[in-house]
Specification:
The protein is α/β, with parallel strands linked by helices. Helix content is 24%, strand content 26%. 47% of the residues are buried.
């Protein structure tokens, strides 16, 4: 066991505070990682505040982890001390079910083990990246290519893969018209990645406030969803819409923007149920879908793609003492576009 400093929420809705946690001893196939940077994801806030249901406290959030290997177990073959690595939203799965066997561990039929707010196979709670070090089985660790600096790579471990996976699965590319709903932590990555894939990219945002940013990030078009004319002008336009927002949306209105056989894929998760008139999907053989992060193999593919295309997150570095303020700013959409904690400040 190793004692490390961390920032934790002691109870639901409580401010995060500095504390210490125990990391397990390095086992046969484990990798000990010195965490250098940890991104702040909106889902950290949902879970700290129990917006998605009952949670485990104390909670150390953080599933956008970038660091350097400090120690490896005797059976480790993929990594060695000094390697630049990342850990995303999961640290284990059953490894035996159909989904795990085909490299889609995020859809493990027995339930993947989350990087935090979960119970590991040892029966102990998992603690995330707002900490100095983490111990993870090598099968759930990815390599960060040399072309990516660790600070801008950290958010790729959630925001990057969460948008890359549906863009890849629904074949975004040349000749395809893709819309991204929301230009936040996930949305800005979706724009960069869809643009690099060769798609024609449109941002759909509440207002035109971030239009200049959206165009610089790679969008070809930018429209305000608060303007009713947007839905008239863009009706039947898109092959794929990726919605990154976690607030309730008018799904009927968004579905009206799809071509026949188009897909609206949700990667943001509102805390409340949503309603839908099924004529919105029946008319036009449209698909309303969801997508959750990606498997380990696809996460590595995404990192290699981002390195090849020079894609990192747009970040605002912060110290650990600024985490609670950062949460409030995320809720106010006051970040361009991802807070990243310098874990040397923990």
């Amino acid at each position: 066991m190793t004692t490390v400093a961390a920032y934790a929420a002691p109870a639901a809705k409580a401010p995060l505070e500095r504390t210490t946690i125990e990391r397990r001893a390095v086992g046969e196939s484990d990798v000990l990682i010195d965490i250098k940077f940890a991104g702040i994801c909106h889902s950290d806030i949902h879970q700290v505040r129990e917006g998605w249901g009952e949670a485990i406290f104390p909670m150390v959030p953080g599933h956008e982890i970038a660091g350097v290997v400090a120690e490896v177990g005797p059976g480790v073959t993929r990594f060695q001390v000094g390697d630049r690595v990342g850990v995303g939203c999961m640290v284990d799965s059953c490894r035996e079910c159909e989904n795990c066997r085909r490299g889609e561990e995020q859809y493990c039929l027995k339930g993947m083990v989350g990087t935090y707010n979960a119970i590991g196979k040892d029966g102990e709670p998992t603690y995330g990246g707002y900490s100095e070090k983490i111990v993870v089985d090598e099968n759930y660790v990815v390599r960060i290519p040399d072309g990516l600096s660790l600070d801008v790579a950290a958010p790729l471990l959630c925001a990057g893969i969460t948008t890359y996976s549906p863009l890849s699965h629904w074949n975004a590319g040349p000749g395809k018209k893709v819309a991204v709903v929301g230009l936040g932590g996930l949305g800005h990555m979706a724009v960069k990645i869809a643009h690099a894939m060769g798609a024609e990219v449109t941002v759909l945002s509440q207002s035109l406030r971030k239009k200049d940013d959206g165009l610089k990030l790679g969008a070809d078009h930018y429209h305000a969803t608060s303007d009713p004319k947007t839905f008239e002008e863009l009706a039947g336009t898109f092959d794929l819409i990726v919605s990154t927002v976690s607030a309730p949306m008018d799904f009927g209105a968004l579905l009206s923007l799809l071509k026949t056989d188009g897909a609206l894929v949700n990667v943001g998760v509102p805390e409340e149920p949503v309603s839908l008139n099924l004529f919105s999907v029946i008319g036009g053989r449209k698909t309303l879908a969801g997508s959750m992060i990606g498997g380990i193999r696809e996460t590595q593919e995404m990192l290699d793609f981002c390195a090849e295309h020079g894609i990192g997150a747009e970040i605002e570095p912060i110290s650990a003492a600024e985490i609670n303020e950062a949460y409030e700013r995320v809720l106010a959409s006051d970040v361009r576009y991802r807070f990243v904690i310098d874990t040397a400040t923990i």
